[in-house]
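step=encode ok
step=design start
structure_in=
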């Protein structure tokens, strides 16, 4: 694989997106449902049983996820890093977090079906128009790259024409996130879903911190020649033998608690000094890092500064990855002269 498009494990790609871009992940999973060939019911049942055994986990600790507080004389904003999808039964709530959930006036998340976004863009129409007007990816690759591209998509089991007409970053992500085995995590058990249910039951409002459609479109519209050249280089360097090795030359399956290491660390309150999506320093990596991390964290810091001007108690729950690394939301706040204190 080309040096700039850094190798990444299949499950790490899906799960890193889950930590930073829940709405985009949901869009991709919806595409999978439409494109993946259906399995016979019996095979589906066998697959579910096998997955349940492979992805069992244990928690011999009391959960204590990291929480920060940003406040002034009449406003308190609690910042909670989340995992958008979790396996059923995974414990993540502490006594302190329960107290915060009970006392918050409003829940703010990245995206929610329960919150209206004023002036939201029509992502579906924009994406349909872009697909209709773009030259297929295969026509923009070298002969060798075109051959490997067809092999890569073919190994994924997805419909080639659908992937080939997508904006290249969306097509590449869809192929990447379809590889390997799907674990037992679900947004049904994800932090935001659980919090939304509680706030809905108690009649408290739910708001969003951004227009998730605009975020997705800012990424998907990047379909330029520099990105295509990088993809072409990676494809021609790939030996075509293994779908997983295109994204990770040293891929090895992990199961049980080893698979859920990131989730365990998060539930224990471990916050890493560094965070990256893992797609390298080339055009593709820069596009993802800027649009999913840097730009959003900077915008959220502005939102938080402005929200301090309104009294009340807010619970902001966004992907855990946004609190890690040099471009973290915490550092963006500090750049604006604001400091969030960790309280758990």
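sequence_out=
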């Amino acid at each position: 694989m080309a040096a700039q498009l850094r190798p990444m494990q299949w499950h790490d790609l899906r799960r890193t997106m889950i930590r930073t871009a829940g709405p985009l992940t949901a869009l991709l999973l919806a595409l999978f449902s439409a494109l993946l060939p259906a399995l016979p019911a019996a095979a589906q049942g066998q697959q579910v049983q096998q997955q349940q055994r492979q992805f069992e986990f244990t928690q011999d600790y009391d959960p204590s996820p990291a929480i920060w507080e940003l406040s002034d004389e009449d406003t308190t904003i609690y910042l909670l890093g989340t995992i958008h999808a979790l396996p059923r039964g995974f414990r993540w709530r502490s006594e302190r977090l329960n107290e915060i959930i009970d006392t918050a006036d409003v829940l703010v998340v990245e995206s929610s079906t329960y919150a209206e976004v004023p002036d939201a863009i029509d992502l579906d129409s924009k994406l349909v128009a872009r697909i209709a007007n773009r030259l297929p990816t295969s026509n923009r690759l070298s002969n060798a790259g075109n051959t490997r591209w067809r092999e890569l998509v073919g190994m994924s089991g997805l419909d080639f024409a659908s992937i080939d007409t997508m904006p290249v970053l969306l097509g590449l992500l869809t192929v990447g996130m379809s590889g390997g085995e799907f674990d037992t995590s679900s947004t049904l058990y994800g932090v935001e879903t659980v919090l939304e249910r509680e706030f809905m039951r108690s009649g408290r409002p739910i708001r969003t911190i951004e227009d998730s459609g605009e975020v997705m479109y800012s990424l998907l519209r990047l379909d330029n020649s520099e990105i295509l050249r990088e993809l072409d280089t990676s494809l021609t360097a790939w030996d075509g033998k293994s779908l997983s090795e295109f994204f990770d030359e040293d891929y090895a399956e992990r199961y049980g608690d080893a698979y859920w290491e990131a989730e365990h660390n998060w539930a224990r309150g471990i916050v890493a000094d560094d965070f990256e999506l893992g797609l390298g320093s080339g055009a593709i990596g820069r596009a993802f890092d800027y649009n999913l991390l840097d730009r959003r964290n900077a915008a959220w810091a502005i939102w938080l500064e402005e929200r301090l001007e309104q009294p009340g108690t807010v619970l902001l729950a966004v992907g855990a990855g946004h609190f890690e690394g040099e471009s973290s939301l915490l550092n963006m706040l500090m750049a604006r002269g604001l400091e969030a204190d960790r309280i758990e």
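step=design ok
step=annotate ok -> The chain has one domain: 10-37+60-239+246-342.
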